[in-house]
Design brief:
single chain; 66 residues; mainly alpha; YqgQ-like_sf; Cytosolic protein; YqgQ-like
Length: 66
C-alpha cells in the first residue's frame, strides 16, 4: 500500500467504509480499524505496518498545516 486510497480500498474488503467529513478524524478511525483487524489476526504485520505508517505520516502533515 502506498496511498490513503489504497488503505480505503483495503478496508473496504473487510466491509469498512469510513467517512465523517473531517480528514484527520477519518485517518484516525482508519488507524483504529486497522489495529482491530491486526489484533484479530485478520491482516498480516506487513499490511498493518505499512498502512499505519502512511496514516501517521498523513496525520502529522495535517497537524503541521494547522
Amino acid at each position: 500500500m502506498k496511498t490513503i486510497y489504497d488503505i480505503q480500498q483495503f478496508l473496504k474488503k473487510y466491509g469498512t467504509i469510513i467517512y465523517i467529513g473531517n480528514r484527520e478524524a477519518d485517518l484516525e478511525l482508519m488507524a483504529a480499524e486497522l489495529k482491530e483487524l491486526y489484533d484479530s489476526q485478520l491482516i498480516d504485520v506487513k499490511d498493518f505496518q505499512s498502512s499505519i505508517l502512511i496514516l501517521r505520516t498523513e496525520i502529522q502533515n495535517l497537524k503541521e498545516k494547522k
